[in-house]
From TrEMBL:
Classification via Gene3D superfamilies: Tetratricopeptide repeat domain (1.25.40.10)
Protein name stated in the entry: Pentacotripeptide-repeat region of PRORP domain-containing protein
Pfam families in alphabetical order: PPR_3
Keyword annotations from UniProtKB, A to Z: Repeat
Ribosomal protein as UniProt keyword: no
InterPro entries recorded: PPR/CCM1_RNA-binding, PPR_rpt, TPR-like_helical_dom_sf
PANTHER family linked: PENTATRICOPEPTIDE REPEAT-CONTAINING PROTEIN, TETRATRICOPEPTIDE REPEAT (TPR)-LIKE SUPERFAMILY PROTEIN-RELATED
Source taxonomy: Eukaryota, Sar, Stramenopiles, Ochrophyta, Bacillariophyta
Length: 314
């Protein structure tokens, strides 16, 4: 695709110099955006850099020639942000955010006509959620707060969704053992309050939301993590019984995450409690609840809990 674009540029230059016949083949924003998108979706290691280079080339040509047909639109910027968000290269989340910041600056200075939209912001959040950088969860959270501020200031297009909240919780669950669990719990509580008070019906948490908190708790190492995990599981069960939504029904992942919390706990009754939860899972499954069938990880967590215990007959 880029080779064709280069041929178009070469033919345009020949045409300008009087050395070519036929019509002008000057590429416009449609041609550039098609190639940018091709690199964005290519999965090639150099795809993000190639896409960004083309965006910069397009922008430079527009600014030099003041040709409206070369003005980059939101689609071009979002394609580059998306390319970086899917990249496994070090620093790719930061590169995605830099494109977002560039887009904001160009819009504020009147160079381009379209400001970043919710896709621009959520794609950068997703990039940080995928990142292994120690500060990635904090940065994803800060961008969510910026979205909330824009929405509260009257920009209805920037309303965060429950998917965005889930993505930020996932970033905390992955990225910070020390305070990740507590921040994930806080975000889940915000979602619950927004939904339960009727302020935002679209902010309904799902089982995925609760499972992310449980996952964060299983990695936290907090002494009170088992208690908090069981409370979170009970909240999910209560929410399901109240609402009736199948997407809120606790599943194997929910219960196994709680087992994992107990398996790493130093509390004296940890093994007994893990055993009791596994037994409860088995009873639920035998009573027809296919959603909570214990798996290898469930049993392994309980075995680990007993192996770590000081019980004489473990």
């Amino acid at each position: 695709a880029e080779e064709i674009l280069r041929r178009m540029i070469d033919m345009h230059r020949q045409h300008e110099g009087g050395g070519g016949g036929g019509g002008d083949t000057r590429p416009n924003f449609i041609a550039y955006s098609a190639v940018i998108n091709a690199w964005s979706r290519s999965g090639h290691k150099d795809g993000p850099r190639k896409a960004k280079s083309l965006l910069d080339e397009m922008l430079q040509s527009y600014q030099q020639e003041q040709n409206e047909e070369l003005k980059p639109n939101r689609y071009c910027f979002n394609a580059v942000i998306n390319a970086w968000s899917k990249s496994s290269l070090d620093g790719s989340a930061l590169r995605a955010e830099e494109v977002l910041e560039q887009m904001k600056s160009l819009y504020e200075n009147g160079v381009i006509d379209e400001k970043p939209d919710i896709i621009s912001y959520t794609t950068v959040i997703d990039a940080y959620a995928r990142s292994m950088h120690p500060k990635s969860a904090l940065r994803a959270d800060e961008i969510l707060q910026e979205m909330k501020m824009l929405y509260e200031d009257g920009d209805d297009t920037m309303k965060p969704t429950n998917v965005v909240y889930n993505t930020v919780m996932n970033a905390w669950a992955k990225g910070s053992k020390r305070d990740g669990a507590r921040r994930a719990e806080e975000i889940l509580h915000q979602m619950q309050q927004l939904y339960k008070t009727g302020r935002d019906g679209d902010m309904k948490p799902t089982r995925v939301s609760f499972n992310m908190v449980l996952d964060a708790l299983s990695k936290s190492g907090d002494k009170d993590a088992p208690k908090r995990a069981e409370e979170c599981l009970q909240q999910l069960q209560d929410f399901y019984e109240l609402d009736g939504d199948a997407n809120l029904k606790p599943d194997t992942i929910s219960y196994t995450s709680v087992l994992s919390v107990w398996a790493t706990s130093s509390l004296p009754d940890a093994a007994w409690r893990a055993d009791s939860i596994l037994e409860h899972m088995q009873h639920l499954y035998e009573d027809g609840n296919e959603e909570v069938r214990p798996n290898v990880i469930s049993f392994s967590a309980v075995i680990n809990a007993w192996s770590q215990s000081r019980e004489p007959y473990a």
